[in-house]
Every structure is written in C-alpha cells, then in structure tokens.
Prior knowledge:
The protein has 666 residues and is α/β, with parallel strands linked by helices. It contains 26 helices and 22 strands. It has a domain at 267-364 and 484-523 and 569-624 and 636-665: D-Maltodextrin-Binding Protein, domain 2. Strand 7, helix 5 (171-188) and strand 8 (191-196) form a beta-alpha-beta unit. The radius of gyration is 29 Å and the shape is elongated.
Amino acid sequence: xxxxxxxxxxxxxxxxxxxxxxxxxxxxxxxxxxxxxxxxxxxxxxxxxxxxxxxxxxxxxxxxxxxxxxxxxxxxxxxxxxxxxxxxxxxxxxxxxxxxxxxxxxxxxxxxxxxxxxxxxxxxxxxxxxxxxxxxxxxxxxxxxxxxxxxxxxxxxxxxxxxxxxxxxxxxxxxxxxxxxxxxxxxxxxxxxxxxxxxxxxxxxxxxxxxxxxxxxxxxxxxxxxxxxxxxxxxxxxxxxxxxxxxxxxxxxxxxxxxxxxxxxxxxxxxxxxxxxxxxxxxxxxxxxxxxxxxxxxxxxxxxxxxxxxxxxxxxxxxxxxxxxxxxxxxxxxxxxxxxxxxxxxxxxxxxxxxxxxxxxxxxxxxxxxxxxxxxxxxxxxxxxxxxxxxxxxxxxxxxxxxxxxxxxxxxxxxxxxxxxxxxxxxxxxxxxxxxxxxxxxxxxxxxxxxxxxxxxxxxxxxxxxxxxxxxxxxxxxxxxxxxxxxxxxxxxxxxxxxxxxxxxxxxxxxxxxxxxxxxxxxxxxxxxxxxxxxxxxxxxxxxxxxxxxxxxxxxxxxxxxxxxxxxxxxxxxxxxxxxxxxxxxxxxxxxxxxxxxxxxxxxxxxxxxxxxxxxxxxxxxxxxxxxxxxxxxxxxxxxxxxxxxxxxxxxxxxxxxxxxxxxxx
Length: 666
C-alpha cells in the first residue's frame, strides 16, 4: 500500500478565555497508507477529535502540516467526508433527499440519471431501500446513522473520517453497522480514520490502533498493528490468538493514562518529618505471596514505626506496571523481580538506561515450573522427559508463560530448559503473561506451562489443571526472588527515607520468617487489597509438609524471607543475572559491569539499616552460586562464563552511559 495521508510534526494550541493558551497536541507524526483503517483511541480530552478535524481540514494545525496524496490540507474538501456521532440529517428531507443533497452539491457534472443511480446504489448498500422515502423522525437511530454513512460514501470520498459514529447506538445495532462499514470499506478500498472509546470496536475494525496520551500536550503513546486477517466476523475474531492480547494492551495503556492523570492532579511535594526527607510514599507491588513483607510492613505498622507515616501500596497487575511507575515517577519504590534494577539500569526498557538501585533482597526462592495436567497424564514427570517430548514434537508449537524478561522466573526457566538441551527461543515459545493470568491461560489451553511465583503454581495443582514439574529448590536453591527497587536519583534525594524504608521492610521480613505469624500473614495476603484469593492457595511453611498427590512432586516453592545471607544485596548474584539477560539478548553485556554493580547494589544502605536495627549478628556472606547442572559461575570472568555456555544468542557488548543522571540527581 502506498502512502496516502501524512501527519507531519503536528502541534495544536488553543487560546483560552481571559488569556493564556492550551497545548492540545504536540509532536504528532503519523503515516496512513491507502486502504488502511486507522483508529484513534484515548481518554476524553486527549485530542482525538482535534487530530481528526485537522486531517479533515475543518481546523488547521498551529505547527506542522497534514498532506493528502502529497498535497497540503488547507480546508475541507469533498475527497474527505466526516461522519459524526450525531447524524446531522435535515429533518424536513427524506432519506433519499438527504443523500441527494450531498450528491447534487458535489457531483454537479453528472446527469440527473447518473446522480439518481448513485443515490439508489448507496441506499441499497446500507439496506435502507424500504425506508428511502421516510423522514428522519420516522426511522431509528441506527437507520439514521446508516443514512449518514450512505451520504458520506455517495460522494465517493478518498478518505472517510468517523468521529465516534456508533457511540449512541445499542450494542446489537452497533455491531451490525460495524460489520457493514468494514465490508463497504473493503469493497471500495476506502481509507478510514475513526475516533473511538470502544476497545473492542477498535480491535475489530482496525489495521492499526493509534493510542494517544493525556493532554495537555498529547502525543502518540503507541501504535498497535492488528494482525487479525480479513475478512473478519465478530463471532470469529475473538478466537484469534492476538485478539485478547491486543485488547489487553489497549486497556493497560488506558489504565496507565488514568493513573498518570490522577498522579498529576494530586499534590506530590515531599512531606519531611522525624529527620526524614519524605514520609509520603507510593510503593508498587504485584499480587504474589512474595509481597508479604510489604503487606506486613503496612498492616503491622513497621512503616509507621520508622517514620513513614503515609505509605500507599499500589497494586499492579503486572511487572510492566512497576516498570512504567518507576520510569514515570509516580512510584517512589517497588517490589521488583531480582534482575529488574540491573535491567533498568542497563537500558532494558526501550533502550533507555534508567539507573535503579536495590539495598534489600526481600525474598528468596518461591518460584516453580508448572505444566498442564495433560503432560503428567502422558508420563512427562521430569525435565529429561519434557526435553524428549519437546524435541520429538518440534513441528508443534509449545508455549510457556513467564512474567518479565528480568525476572528469575524467566532466567531460571531458560536456564533449566537450556540445561536439559532445550533451546528456550527455538524449541519453545516463551510469552510474557501477568502472574494472575497464568492459571486462566493454562485452563484455556493457550499455554502449555509457566514459571511463576506462588500462589499460582499451588492453585493450578489444587484446581487439577496443572502440576509442578520443578521448583527453584531444584534449579537454584536460595536464589534471590524479589528485591526493593528505587530510582538512583530518588535514593540520592532521600537518603534517610531510603534507610527508613529498608529498615521497615527488613523488620517485616523478619516477622514473615517466624512460623508463629504464618496464619496471620496468610489472612492478610488473601484479603482483597493484596492477592484477593482463597487462603488455601497461600502457603508459607516448609514445603515438605505440603505436597501434592502426584507421587513426589512438590506442590509449591518455599519462600525464604530472613536470615544469614538472605537480605543483603549480592553483586555476584546480580552479575549472574546480567550474564543471563545478555545470554538471551534482552540487554547488551555492559563493558562497565563493575560500575553497574556498584551503582545497583547499595550494600552501604543495607549495612546502615542493619546497624540501626541492632542486627549486628547477621552474617552477610552467602555460599557460591550453585545451580542444578553443576556449572560453576566465575564472577571474575563473566565473559568466559558466557562463552562456556552452549545454548545462547549472539551476545553484544556496550558501554552503558550513566554519569549524566548522577549529575542531575546530585
């Protein structure tokens, strides 16, 4: 398809009553190909209709230009037809006369017979031949909108522009008209741009979906390619593998924009008290058993004890929400997968290094590999048998879920598969899925298994849809699971607050490690504001006391919260995680890896917190890294270690620039 419409660096400013200006759109660039159907979606006030009006020529940009077939759009024209949510029909004219009025105005060189044939053709096209001579007040809302569509198409525009055309219609009428519009656009190869608030409508109709951020200064926050083949049927399109992932992507974007809008509307000045630079904190977490220390610190008063009087725990559905919250600045701190601080620092998020630090390991262990129950029934009870099945059925796609590229779930699953001789990128497909969605996807059969933290392994087993084939106790017993992460510039700006936060969570970790508190903690975690799940799915004790009925397979992986060597951030462990992320191409291996580790692991903050808590008898040193395959990890020669591994991607190296952020933060 050739380029048809170009929106080049558009900016739109509106004057305000009483003086001043409002910046509606800024830096909008968009190319539309001939025959494409584009949807614009975003919250009210994000400039969707403003952008549509500038493409239509009903308004002009303050800066930038819009071109149609290479010609600058300066005013409205018959080659661009707009269909509004309101029908804009003349009430004293019939259906036929409303359409004829547009045809007579635009097609003045045509004979009366030709114009009449065009009108009748388009009346029949939208199925209104039986109502052709009725007035608008004699037909339904859906029929009025069909008149508007017929009128727009009758003048044979090159570009159809729709501003929420179906918003006022009932669901059944809306669905029928959507299918009709799609068929018409396909038949006549019409290019269309539509403003909508309806996520399902956007996915169903579009080739691409343009998502706009909040105003003022709205910009394009992302463009989704809809890979669902045409022709499409409403009852069939929901079965396409991409349908729900596209839908989820749009909903996630809209929810994040809602959060950003709320964040901007609130006062976020740091409240200082008790010698702390800031006591009002927004801390993100994902609903997993591993969030126990954060929940306990909140519910048992450890935050308040250490002067953090105004702490809100923000529940995110996925680790992507944590990344966006930290990068966007609306989270002060967060529970993170162990590899995320290094991943962010090196530039794993959109190739933009964001120096992030950790001064506390919150949990160790707690992850497991779960497979669908059908594999157990087929006799696949261990990694060797899984490898054999995967390699013998290489022509059949097998999909496994993990939660984030920087998570130990991903790194351990990949290491375990590669250790069994299975290439995690070529022999299977690994898909990023929010933790709470894992069991539902396993039930639906869209994935064959996953690696995730509890309680989602235990739940799959208890609901008899999956079984645990391996826990991290077998792959790497004692690995870091979740850590506390903050932006480096935040840690520099609020050093005393950072220490207080580590102290509060360290005490909470100690509380979680006491078996006498486990029942209380299970009740806290099961509540609506945390995991919102059946308490039976949450186990905190020794896994040997709770195993499933599938021979000797352990049903859940045991979390470790506190003890000698448990909570101190380890540079050696973070280096191993960096090697694994580089091994699979998620990040380049940093040439300045020593500097990265010193910046990421804030051992001094942890040590200060321990000293102020009186935990001087804690032993810091941990045993060397021991994984199931016995391959030793040499922290002095990470490149040699990577070269020694058989299954890997092409590893790149890069110098990661970090100094500028330090200067800004300081």
